[in-house]
Amino acid sequence: MANPSFSSPSLSPSAAPNLAAKDSSAQTLIRRWIWKMAIATLALMAVGSATRVMNAGLACPDWPLCYGQLVPTAQMNLRVFLEWFHRLDASLIGLMAIGLVGLSGWYRRSLPAWLPWSAVGALFLIVVQGLLGGLTVIELLRFDIVTAHLGTALLFFSTLLIIGTALMPYKPAGNVGKLPWLGLAAALLVYAQSIIGGLVGSRWAAHQCFGLADLCNVMNTHMAGVVPPTLTVLALVVAVWRTPALDQWLRGLANAAGLLLLLQIALGVATFKLRLQVEPLTVCHQTIGAALLGCLVCFTVLALRDRSSQTRSSQTRSSQTIVAAAPFEESNPEENPLQFPA
Questions:
Q1: What backbone torsions phi and psi does residue 277 show, to the nearest 5 degrees?
Q2: Among residues 128, 136, 132, which one has the least CA distance to residue 58?
Q3: What is the pLDDT of residue 197?
Q4: Cα gap 127→129, rounded to integer Å
Q5: Taking the mean position of all CA atoms in its chain, how far away is CA 197?
Q6: Is the Cβ–Cβ distance between 329 and 322 less than 8 Å?
Q7: Distance between CA atoms of 272 and 75, rounded to whole angstroms?
Q8: Which of 110, 186, 305, 327 has its CA 20 to 30 A from that of 5?
């Protein structure tokens, strides 16, 4: 009789579903955590834009505290509140990034191998973002630091969306074609245009351009730079419409990107025509730009997942064909009438 202490270590049929459920619950927890971080980051960029257009960037003259306090109740007004709340939101996102690294490490056996490293990368970006925020105050809103601050925020936001979208349950259709590369090109162009827009804002180029100053070149570059991302996003939307049997997520994200693009252009024109005198328009313009980038990033990740699934399916079919043909290659020429001797 076999000793039960030396029985096979393989999982019993009842244990396998429990392990799969544990893996699924861990990924769901991480995914929801990441989406909350992404929403908070979008709100952070909106508050940061409001802080800039309200000239509240130096409302707290010191860093990381505000007037040497955690909550400057005596000095609190609208501008101080904007800068203080901007720092508070950034601190909360930083704590959530630390929590993401901890959760990824704790559940690492139930998660994809790349996830803990991606969490560390996101934490690194938010640390850099915080340091750039401090330098923004210390260096008295120096334009290159302010622009880098925005660029890093968009990178961090995109990183969160990449991780969250990669963890989504998704059923590939297998016919995306060149849509992933079109989506990637559109995302890169929108990111570049956002950086130029940040440069316009940090140098107050739009205000000086009204007086025909030298910084009109910066403003004109931003206005001319609208064309490439606009054409690429529109090409993506048309390509999606003409591609049959696509997943509803891809269609929805492409349609959302097209609508956000039109809204972004309308807000940009209105902001310029009103000479930047309506602050909510400027804030909405920058926030919609970040949302547009987010849609394109999510679309690209899902399309790449679809394409990689299509590639794996093709490789599997090729392997099956080779295996099926192997007996004919190894058989005797006399037994196989399709194989001729040399």
A1: -90, -10
A2: 136
A3: 85
A4: 5
A5: 18
A6: no
A7: 33
A8: 110
Token pair recorded at residue 57 = 């960037």
Instruction: State residue 340's pLDDT score.
Output: 38
- Write out the two tokens for 336: 């196989």
Q: How far is CA 184 from CA 197, 293, 299, 300, in A?
A: 20, 10, 9, 6
3-state secondary structure of 50: helix
The per-residue pLDDT for range 12-62, each reduced to its tens digit, is 444 445 545 556 788 999 999 999 999 999 999 999 989 988 888 889 989
pLDDT of residue 71: 92
pLDDT tens for residues 107-140? 999 899 999 999 999 999 999 999 999 999 888 8
To the nearest 10°, report the CA torsion of 261, 266, 269, 271: -100
pLDDT in the model for residue 335: 47
Contact 96/126 with Cβ under 8 angstroms?
no
pTM of the model: 0.83
Within the chain, strands assigned E span: none
Predicted local confidence at residue 156, as pLDDT: 97
**Is the Cα dihedral 97, 52, 76, 59 positive or negative?**
positive
H-type alpha helices, the chain: 15-53, 78-106, 114-138, 143-166, 179-202, 205-209, 216-224, 227-242, 248-273, 279-330
Residue ranges in the chain modelled with pLDDT below 50: 1-16, 19, 328-342
- Kindly list the distances between the CA atom of residue 74 and the CA atoms of 65, 206, 334, in Å, as whole numbers in the listed order: 14, 35, 99
pLDDT of residue 214: 59
- Let me know: does 243 contact 306? Beta carbons within 8 Å: no
Record the tokens describing residue 119, joined without a space. Answer: 């969490």
What is the number of residues in the chain? 342
Q: Give me 149's structure tokens.
A: 């601050």
Structure-derived torsion over alpha carbons of residues 33, 37, 38, 41, reported in degrees to the nearest 10: 180
